[in-house]
Amino acid sequence: MTAINIPDHVFYEAVQEFWKIREEQAAQQRQRGTPDQGYRGAVTGGKQMYGFARKIEELLINAGVSEDDIFYERKPTTLPGFYRPTKEWDIVVVSRGRLIAAIELKSQAGPSFGNNFNNRVEEAVGTAVDLWTAHREGAFNALSTPWLGYLSLKIVKSRRVL
């Protein structure tokens, strides 16, 4: 696998898709007459980060990873943990039965940015510690240490700007 150089504009379309899906999910919640409080309905439906997953898959393939080794969305991404039985990751790369990488994708917008940011940091650290401990204890049959990634999309203002 070669190094990946990611230009600034690479995730532009993924950000556009994020906003489109977020708006569609909020509209669906309103149509059902069960809107979540604030913008919660726009994010609890999931799928708003799929554009990022597809772009990361493209980057991995361009770096030499086989498409068959990349798991996300419709393929299982559950890995064993140490402190919990399993954890579902957003993207997992497995080659020849060995874990190569695990990537988590998160988005965060809204007025409680400070509190949620602390929660996301704690979640990222806890998830990494769980995976590293499982790796150290032999859960992945790995010859080398897997790579962990955590892509976090932070929206400081909740207004869409294109």
Explain the overall architecture:
- The chain has 162 residues and is α+β, with helices and mostly antiparallel strands.
- It has a domain at 49-155: Trna Endonuclease, Chain: A, domain 1 (3-Layer(aba) Sandwich), CATH 3.40.1350.
- The protein is 39% helix and 22% strand.
- The longest helix is centred in the last third of the chain and has 24 residues, at 113-136.
- The radius of gyration is 17 Å and the shape is globular.
Largest sheet at a glance?
Answer: 4 strands, mixed
Distance between the termini: 35 Å
CATH class of the domain at 49-155: Alpha Beta
Strand order of the largest sheet: 1-4-5-6
Q: What is the H/E string?
A: HHHEEEEEHE
Derived structural class: alpha+beta
Inertia-based shape: globular
Helix content: 25-40%
- Which spans of ≥5 residues are poorly predicted at pLDDT below 50? 40-45
* Counted beta strands: 6
The CATH topology name of the domain at 49-155 reads: Trna Endonuclease, Chain: A, domain 1
Average pLDDT level: 82
Number of helices: 4
Summary, kept brief:
With 162 residues, the chain is α+β, with helices and mostly antiparallel strands. The chain has a domain at 49-155: Trna Endonuclease, Chain: A, domain 1 (3-Layer(aba) Sandwich), CATH 3.40.1350.
